[in-house]
Amino acid sequence: MPWIRVKKEKDWFALSGELKLDDGLVLSMERLIDLLETARGRFVQLGDGQFLALTRVFRRRLEELSAYSKKSGKSRRFHPLAALSLETLAGEVGGFRGDKHWKAHLRQFKDASVLMPEIPSTLKRDLRDYQAEGFVWLARLSHWGVGACLADDMGLGKTIQALAVMLTRAANGPSLVVAPTSVCMNWETEAHHFAPSLNIVTSGSYPRGGGEQIDPLPVSGRKYSAERASAPGGVISEWRRRSVSDQPQGRWRWPEPYRCRLRHPYGSLVESGR
C-alpha cells in the first residue's frame, strides 16, 4: 500500500508519496501518475516486461488526484478547494500524514459545514428566503476561508447578501469592494441605507506614481477602471476579504499590484449578474 504526505506550499498544498512493490521497487506517486497516463485498463507497464496491476478503486483515486492537481517538481500541487477529494484517498492508503495547515483546513471546512450564522441585527432590512439562504452559504464559505461566486439577475439582492456577510465578519477586519465606477455609487447608497454601522471609504483614481495609504476601516470601495489605468505606490495591508462586483463579461483580472497585495484574503466574493 502507498503512503502519502501533504504539506502547505504557499497558497496551495503539495502532495508527495511512494508505492513499495513486493520486489523492492519503489515508485513515487508522481511517477505512478505519469505511467498511468499511458496505461490502458488496470495494468501499468513498468518496463522490462513488468506490469503493475492496480485495483479499479485505486486507479480511480489516482485519476482523481491527477485531475485535481498539477505537477510541481517531485510532488503535485493542488488547490485547497480540492482537499475534500483527498479525504477518501487518505482513508484508503497505507499511511497518510498531513501537516498542521492541512489539519486546520479540514477542521475549518467541517466547522463551516455546520455553521448556522444569524442575520446581523445591524442589517436594516429583512432578507427574503432565497437571500437568507444565500447569506448562509456565503457566510460558511467565508468562515472556511475560500471564495464564492454569487451570480443572479440584477435587482435580486446580491449587494444586500454581501453586506450581511460583511457585517457578520466586520470584527475580523476590513472588507475591500472592487467595482466599476458606475456601480460604486450604488454600493455606497445601499451600504449607508442598510448597513449604517459600517464605515465606508471610497477611493478612486490618483496621480500615476503616487502613493495612497488606506486606513483599516471596515469597508473600502475602489473603482477598478481607475486601478487598471494607474498602479499604486502605496501598500494596502491587513485586508481579510474582498468583493469583486459585476465583473464585465467575466474576463476582468486583478491588476498586478493588487494581486500581490491581496493574495491572502480571508475570503473572496465575486458577484455577477445582468
From TrEMBL:
Classification via InterPro entries: P-loop_NTPase, SNF2-like_sf, SNF2_N
User: Per its UniProt entry, which superkingdom is the organism in?
Assistant: Bacteria
Q: Name one GO molecular function term.
A: ATP binding
The SNF2 N-terminal domain, residue ranges:
130-203
Query: What name does UniProt use for this protein?
Result: SNF2 N-terminal domain-containing protein
